Amino acid sequence: xxxxxxxxxxxxxxxxxxxxxxxxxxxxxxxxxxxxxxxxxxxxxxxxxxxxxxxxxxxxxxxxxxxxxxxxxxxxxxxxxxxxxxxxxxxxxxxxxxxxxxxxxxxxxxxxxxxxxxxxxxxxxxxxxxxxxxxxxxxxxxxxxxxxxxxxxxxxxxxxxxxxxxxxxxxxxxxxxxxxxxxxxxxxxxxxxxxxxxxxxxxxxxxxxxxxxxxxxxxxxxxxxxxxxxxxxxxxxxxxxxxxxxxxxxxxxxxxxxxxxxxxxxxxxxxxxxxxxxxxxxxxxxxxxxxxxxxxxxxxxxxxxxxxxxxxxxxxxxxxxxxxxxxxxxxxxxxxxxxxxxxxxxxxxxxxxxxxxxxxxxxxxxxxxxxxxxxxxxxxxxxxxxxxxxxxxxxxxxxxxxxxxxxxxxxxxxxxxxxxxxxxxxxxxxxxxxxxxxxxxxxxxxxxxxxxxxxxxxxxxxxxxxxxxxxxxxxxxxxxxxxxxxxxxxxxxxxxxxxxxxxxxxxxx
Length: 509
Ligand code: ADP
Fold this sequence. Notes:
By secondary structure, this protein is α+β, with helices and mostly antiparallel strands. It has helices spanning 54-72, 111-119, 123-130, 140-149, 153-158, 167-175, 185-188, 203-209, 248-255, 313-321, 331-337, 376-402, 419-429, 441-453, 459-466, 486-502, and strands at 11-16, 20-26, 32-39, 51-52, 78-83, 88-92, 97-98, 102-103, 162-166, 194-195, 200-201, 223-233, 236-247, 264-268, 272-279, 290-295, 301-309, 346-348, 366-368, 408-412, 432-436, 470-473. It has a 7-stranded mixed β-sheet.
């Protein structure tokens, strides 16, 4: 038998990611006490297409929640859900089954359609209403594709039994055995159908994509009741309220305690995601960043600016798997320290183009500045520097757009374990990098929002649980005018020059 844990209550966080589902139970101090993980298959039926099977995701959800409940030996007090965003399914609400494979956020099949809509001049309206750019990344054109192409979807819509759901709503519907269907503002803000100022679906955009309002999940506050989950406990079914939903990046922001205006976090995973909470003020970017919704201290919606770099930790994976320069990603830290600098080497990781603030899909990766003396350590160090440079580009864009000083950044994700990278990040971006010991920020954010929604903790208690001792990386001091020291300015200039040489077309300025 499983030994019972000595805690008053726990909250179960379900983190439904792109490649797998993690369930973690957190205690009243928001510390993890039990965990399980299961992967599910990825579908790549054609170049540029990426699909998920709803049943496989939901089976993984059931498996990991069952395992965590078995470890706990008792029912959690509440469930919180966080998820890969933008991915969308056509759900038959009468059977609980998806009518077709889901289109994953990486899926590019609607690129041409986005081009058409751009040509029709819809870009500015989309940005104005949704804070997003017209790109296949978001759910809008994916839903339209399902309506037009997936067998049975149109008929199910006409019969009033089809809902287009993001992964959060799919899981809510499944866990409540079809009793509830709902999403939250952070997930809705990624559909390209949601007006982020009015906090409601936008009729004009529903018309553009041919979607009926009745086919979408009602949007409820991120903290609060979403329905009752029926979970498989070790000695039979248990009923537990679902009281929190957040998209994954917003969950990491919340889980890092970044609930006030000016709070910034970066997740260093396969790619890098920066989110800056801008509170009540909606900031429109001039540098190609997205405006999106996050959660405030009370679980209400706050505005955020978001920037992402496609290649983050994946640069290190590439050096390990394709170049064979290291055995393990963590070896990169010692290798970087084994040389004094990159020896003039600059790596631009445009493996799949350049994102914000460059937006050049055709640019391709390059390594510049090699000499006969260049060795593997120089290249590995340049790879880590490239992660820090890209995030610095985004921090500079965030500062310019928001007018906020942004002096500190909280970090999480696999590559945040690398101390060389974190120090480099502090130096290049000129801010204090704060790394909590618990870097499972995404699941923790889901647990925190659910604890808030269930009334188990209030905003102040959550803040004090989340703002824990951090390891800090202080930047090299800057001049009184904020100017970067000479060596930082020099490597930034080298980086920008390398970017310019990588561009597929000349930069507009
Ligand atoms: P994801 O959630 O996107 O799968 P993770 O947060 O699990 O990503 O981080 C995994 C990524 O971090 C991998 O790309 C890996 O190369 C990178 N990584 C892990 N540890 C280190 C390290 N010590 N130094 C640099 N990169 C690392």
